[in-house]
Amino acid sequence: MKVGIDLIHFATSDYFLGMDTFAQEKGQDVNKFYVGLGQEKMSIAPPDEDIVSLAAKAAEPILQQIERQAISAVLFATETGVDQSKSAGVFLHRLLGLSSRCRMVELKHACYAGAAGLQMATAMVKANPQERVLVIAADIAKYDLNSSGEATQGCGAVAMLVCAEPRILEIEPGSGYFTDDVMDFWRPNHRSTALVDGKYSTKVYLNSLKQAWEHFHEQTERGFEQIDYFCYHIPFTKMAEKAHQTLVRKVGLEYDAAQEAKTLPGQIYNRVIGNSYSASLFIGFISLLDNVKESLAQKRVSFFSYGSGCVAEFFTGVVQDGYQQWLMTQSHQQQIHSRIELNYQTYLQFYYQVDFAQSNLTLPHFNRGPYRFCGLEGDKRIYAEYSENSTTSG
Ligand code: CAA
């Protein structure tokens, strides 16, 4: 029985900050960002957008195509959790009208948890082929102002339906993993922004790739030449390029244009969305599916997930025949192209607006829907389904 991704869709926010605006404000050469980091824009979440509203926006187009009451579990991966106790998936459960006969759990390990969710969902379906698991990876990457990480913010959510006989990607058995207790990026409970030892984090990322690759190769005996396209966790697109160069050289090959072509299509969306932590690898995969013009049917794609701290995993999947008819390319591109550009002052207003020291909070209306985070009532988060003509809250 094949198990894997049946449908996949991403959502990002309605606003972006251009790296040209960012560079001008910081008095830096824009090519540091365009060339040095490989970033043109970062999606910025307004105060009334969070991981729940982003996740609902990502998942709803999938649920419209299937029997939503058949979803048996939601595995919600995030670094940007909204509650220390209640899982974000339960807010999502009501917004999306899922069955009460459905389990919810939140998974965390920095940017890695989305891959963990996908592997767990695959195992659940293998154990019981009736399972239809919704895997969500959703994050808002936020660093301190004027820190090295500020240029690598962004936000996004990916929803993946995992089931038997998938229409888009079969996840292949076997994977390579690597864990090491390091402090390259972390976020203590009292902080809303991540702390990072930036340069060190890039070194740990590349070392983790080499270690996870070795384990993958030992476990599966699949070689580099048997992989057609390579997707990496993308904190900024230059990092993915460096990752691919590192892997190519590790297997004793020259890095040339042919090698570059195996990974570049998987960076197109991330270049204009920025980092979305747990979602970033899968936005990269969607970018590959949407942007490679030749058929990817029966092509093997690799996935390298890296979560600072650190946990990493390398695994592969095979794209299924006829996958093209199930892609939601138009929605992805329309979201990217219809975003509103922020000036630096409005970016700062968005950055500072939510003060969670308050128990009651009504947020101004910036998010264009279809779901929004309305604020707090007695420390309870309030979400609304929103369209231009009607608003339902609860
Ligand atoms: N024209 C062209 N290139 C330029 C340039 C210019 N005018 N000015 C600088 N550059 C190049 C630099 O040479 C450098 O390239 P190399 O890395 O190839 O040497 C690149 O632009 C970046 O310049 P700096 O090293 O000076 O940049 P920085 O120190 O300000 O920040 C960073 C770089 C440390 C990665 C920072 O962006 C950061 O802290 N990011 C957050 C942490 C992160 O994303 N780490 C990635 C691994 S961890 C992970 O993946 C998990 C996660 O999601 C966070």
DSSP summary, beta strand count: 19
Name the CATH homologous superfamily.
Thiolase/Chalcone synthase
Low-confidence stretches: none
Write the CATH fold name: Peroxisomal Thiolase, Chain A, domain 1
Overall SS class: alpha+beta
Query: Which radius of gyration do the C-alpha atoms yield?
Result: 20 Å
Amount of beta strand? 25-35%
Number of domains: 1
Alpha-carbon distance between the two ends: 41 Å
Name the shape in a single word. Answer: globular
The average pLDDT value, as a whole number, equals 96
**Which architecture would the CATH scheme give at its second level?**
3-Layer(aba) Sandwich
Q: State the helicity in percent bands.
A: 25-40%
Number of helices: 12
Indicate the multimeric state. single chain
Look at the structure and give the CATH class: Alpha Beta
Q: List bound small molecules.
A: acetoacetyl-coenzyme A
Largest sheet: 10 strands, mixed
Please tag this protein with its features:
four-stranded antiparallel beta sheet, 394 residues, ten-stranded mixed beta sheet, binds acetoacetyl-coenzyme A, 12 helices, Peroxisomal Thiolase, Chain A, domain 1, alpha+beta
